[in-house]
Design a protein that fits this description.
alpha+beta, 5 strands, 57% helix, Alpha-Beta Plaits, 173 residues, five-stranded antiparallel β-sheet
Amino acid sequence: MAITRDKKQALVADFSELLASSKLTAFANYQDLTVAEFQELRAAARAKGVTIRVIKNRLVRVALADNDTYKEADTSALVGQLLYATSDSDEVAPAQVLNDFAKTHPALELAGAFSGEGVTLGVEEATALASLPSREQLVAEVVAQLLSPVHDVTNALSGNLHALLDGVEAKAA
């Protein structure tokens, strides 16, 4: 059954909103993915705050052309049955979700991505982006690095204090 013109316009408007608020839009070929696997992918994406959409590539091209940021984006990679993963809060989560799922489900193949600045990323770049730690992991690492000197000083002082108390206790006995 064909989609009506109004439905197509609604799909384009919905996807345009997703693109406008997205920090990264990754896309992947899902041709041989089963329904159960697709539901598993959606659940994994939802857990990381990623939205998965299946929309015709032609409609995606229209949505990209309507958006000032993505007007100049290269759409030559939009070939075949593609699904689109977007996130408005994390720059690497969409690529990570698709890449992690593709490791256990070879039917899914990461095909590329669009950055929030309108740059088209190839498969290699999207895969490299997916290997980066998440924003939360990076913040935790920075905080750990900042607190490291404080912990070192605290441990050194507490070690000296314990040695002093042991010496005092030995003198009293």
